Amino acid sequence: MSDPEASPGNPTSTLAAAAAPEAAAPEHGSARPPRAPKGSSGEIARLAGPAMLSLTLASIVGMADILMVGRLGREAQAAVGVAQQLFFVAQSALFALSFACVAVMARSIGAGEPGASRRALAASLVVSSVTGLLLFAALGLAPSPLLAWLGAEPAVAELCAPYLRLVMGSTLLTAVALAIESGLRADRDTVTPMLVAAVLTLVKIALNGVFMFGWLGGPEWGVRGAGVATLLSQCGAAAVFLCIAFCKPARQPSALRLADFRGIGAMFAPLLRIAAPSVCERLVMNLAMISYFKFVGGYGTAAIAAYTIGIRILSFSWIPGTGYSQAVATLVGQSLGAGDVRAATRAGWRAARLALWTAVAMGALGAVFRRPLAEIFSTDPETVAALGPFMLCLSLAQPAMQLHFTLAGAFRGAGDTITPFWAAILGNWIFRVPLAWLLATVLGWRLEWIWAVLILDHFSRAIWLAEGFRRGAWRRRAKAG
């Protein structure tokens, strides 16, 4: 669940029981050998499939938000789009911490040390929660200066400010849910998050209707109602995942008990060492996206609305690469924990091939059907006109985009978050932002050229990561460690 914005509709005990059963793992020192996954294409697909479905459900929630907010007008769509740029900054920092959680836990599980895995999960939960509070304080308490810096028009800023406070208020809850979900993925359980997402997706959409449009006698709060629905649904998501973790048999690698929080001090160092470059990567990327968004905003509210809608539509085509990334991170981490570097390498390249084949099909669909999709999500002629070229550019970038998603997951599973960090700097700050500034501010070229800059960004990152994975410095560091 990449963006857990939902609330439980079924008892959490039912959701937890529906997960794939696994025998309780013995503690370190037992006769059980380390778990060494094969990393076959079938195994990658088995892990990635439920993750993709979870991401699809999250995208459905995002698209439902856009469709429902779209009924409130162009300014409302733009307000949600502006708020999302800031919320993504916070969410990305939490994702970075989740990458570290997967890397440390998967390595411990592969080495046959479930106790260390549980302590890593407990430490990750503490670090993520503190980070969520800090992000709310930084971005949610006083949003007006940030909205002014982003160039939001007064009518858009007025709608955006209360919505932003509400969604930023949910970051602590997001941190809790995402940390535990990452622990489940590290333990090769992608089914449970899928089941949670399936139930909570329906509840989130229903809450939107209740608080935005007054369904079932609720208040008609418009954009603010969408924020209330997000906050309430995140409460449910956090509660569900906490229940799952504390209801699992105590000796499983992804279980949690209060005793697991004792002695977690030793886990903070490896978590932070892996997370720090990843947090920097996400901040670099999101600051670049905000800067890019600012240049797009110079072309008017229709351009902002087109960017917001286009990202949501094409988020479906990014799902395979993200799912493969999550699967390969787990397999690489567990393989290295078991001392099998060759299996980790094979898993990385097999996941990359799967991502490329999938990307070609998804990109083709986005390019061919870009106009009909644009007309579904907006009735404003200017927005539709701006949206078509944007979707075409992102469709052309799909192979590179999904390749670098997948390979970045392999690096993170190996505990190497430096290489994806440099890839983000290259794509965003050598290509995306400088070229967008040049074309928009200096040369004054048409909006279509600003969209085209995205293609160079993603191809440069894909080339950097593919070459880095081939050279294999991450393998040498893994052997040395």
What is the element layout, followed by pairings?
Blueprint: H1 12-17, H2 41-70, H3 74-110, H4 114-139, H5 144-149, H6 154-169, H7 171-186, H8 191-213, H9 223-247, H10 265-297, H11 301-337, H12 341-368, H13 370-377, H14 381-396, H15 398-413, H16 418-442, H17 447-471, H18 473-480
Helix pairs in contact: 2-8, 2-11, 3-4, 3-6, 3-7, 3-10, 3-11, 4-7, 4-10, 6-9, 7-9, 8-9, 10-16, 11-12, 11-14, 11-15, 12-14, 12-15, 13-14, 14-17, 15-17, 16-17
Polypeptide structure, described:
79% of the residues lie in helices and 0% in strands. The protein has 18 helices and no strands. The longest helix is centred in the N-terminal third of the chain and has 37 residues. It is globular, with a radius of gyration of 21 Å. 61% of the residues are buried.
Q: In a nutshell, what does this entry contain?
A:
This protein is an all-alpha fold and 481 residues long. Helix content is 79%, strand content 0%.
Instruction: Provide the structure class.
Output: mainly alpha
The tally of strands reads 0
Number of helices: 18
For the biggest sheet, the summary is: none
Mean pLDDT comes to 82
Pattern of helices and strands:
HHHHHHHHHHHHHHHHHH
Spatial separation of the terminal alpha carbons: 31 Å
Multimeric state: single chain
Radius of gyration: 21 Å
Low-confidence stretches: 1-37
Strand content: under 5%
Principal-axis shape equals globular
Residues in helices, as a percent range: over 70%
